[in-house]
Design a protein that fits this description.
About 55% of the residues lie in helices and about 0% in strands. By secondary structure, it is an all-alpha fold. It folds into 2 domains: about 120 residues, no CATH class; about 140 residues, no CATH class.
Length: about 260
C-alpha cells in the first residue's frame, strides 16, 4: 500500500520487489567491496535489499548502510535494516521511531528481529494507540502482538474487544491482567463471559468471579464448576455485589448438604 505523508496516514510500505539479477554479484564480493557498496549514494533499493541478505554482512557494514541517506529514502530498505539481527542498536532504534504504524507491527512480529527491537516496536505501538484511527486499531487488534491486543482489550468498544479476543497471539495471562483491573470495561467482561474459548479457562473464570461487572447468571455458572473451598477463597477478595456473593455462599452451603446429607441433618 502506498503512504500519504500529507495526511499523516501511517501505512505499510509498498511490497518488496524481487531482487534484480544484478544482486547475485553480491555473493562474490569481498568485505571491502561490500562496505563500499553500503556507503554508495547510488545504491539502488534492490541492491540494498540484496546486500542486507548477504551472509557475511557485518555490524560495521550495517552501520555504514544506516548512514546512507539515499538508500534510507526507500522505506523497504529502512524496514529491512531495522529488522536485521546484526544491526547495531544505536542504528536500529532511531530508525524505528520513523516507521509507520503497520511497519512497527511487522517489526514486532518478525522472528529474526532482535528481541529488544521487537519490544521497542511494541512499546512504540502502545504509545500510538491514543492517536491512531479506529480502523488502524481494529487491524492491530486482529493482527498485532499479544501485548498490543491485550492493551486494546481496555478500549471498551465491543467490536474492537471481540477482534482482540480472536487474536491468535493473545494469552490467558493478558486477559486475566485486564479483567483484574478496576477499570476493566463492561464490554470486555461480557465478551469474555460468553467466549467459547476463553470462558472455559480456569484462571479466566477466577478473574471473572472477582469482577463486579460479571453478570450474575454467569458468576453462578462459573462458581458451580469449582470446588467450594476455592470459591469461598475467591469471594473473600471479590468485587462482586454483596447480594451476588451472598447467593453464591448460600449455593455452596446447599451443595455441601447435597453432597453430605447425613451431616446436613
Amino acid at each position: 500500500m502506498a503512504s500519504d505523508e500529507r495526511k499523516g496516514v501511517k501505512m505499510a510500505p509498498e511490497p518488496v520487489k524481487p531482487a534484480s539479477p544484478r544482486s547475485s554479484v553480491l555473493l562474490n564480493q569481498d568485505p571491502e567491496n561490500l562496505r563500499a557498496m553500503a556507503a554508495d549514494a547510488s545504491l539502488t533499493p534492490d541492491l540494498a535489499l540484496g546486500l542486507l541478505k548477504h551472509p557475511d554482512l557485518s555490524a560495521e557494514m550495517l552501520e555504514q548502510l544506516g548512514r546512507n541517506g539515499a538508500a534510507l529514502k526507500h522505506r523497504n530498505v529502512k524496514l529491512a535494516l531495522v529488522e536485521h539481527p546484526k544491526t547495531p542498536r544505536h542504528v536500529s532504534l532511531p530508525l524505528l521511531r520513523q516507521l509507520y504504524t503497520f511497519e512497527l507491527m511487522q517489526v514486532a512480529l518478525t522472528p529474526v528481529a532482535p528481541a529488544h527491537i521487537k519490544l521497542a516496536a511494541d512499546q512504540a505501538l502502545l504509545k500510538r494507540l491514543e492517536t491512531i484511527s479506529w480502523g488502524e486499531k481494529l487491524t492491530l487488534a486482529h493482527r498485532a502482538s499479544g501485548r498490543v491486543a491485550g492493551e486494546l482489550l481496555r478500549d471498551g468498544e465491543a467490536r474492537l474487544v471481540r477482534a482482540a479476543l480472536e487474536n491468535s497471539r493473545l494469552t490467558e495471562g493478558l486477559i486475566v491482567r485486564v479483567l483484574m483491573r478496576p477499570d476493566a470495561p463492561a464490554a470486555l467482561v461480557e465478551a469474555v463471559c460468553h467466549h467459547p474459548q476463553w470462558s472455559l479457562r480456569r484462571e479466566v473464570r477466577v478473574a471473572l468471579l472477582r469482577n463486579e461487572k460479571t453478570p450474575f447468571a454467569r458468576a453462578v455458572e462459573f462458581a458451580r464448576t469449582m470446588p467450594g473451598t476455592e470459591v469461598r477463597e475467591i469471594l473473600q477478595n471479590s468485587r462482586l455485589p454483596g447480594n451476588a456473593k451472598s447467593y453464591l455462599l448460600k449455593d455452596l452451603e446447599n451443595r455441601d448438604r447435597a453432597s453430605n446429607p447425613v451431616s446436613g441433618r
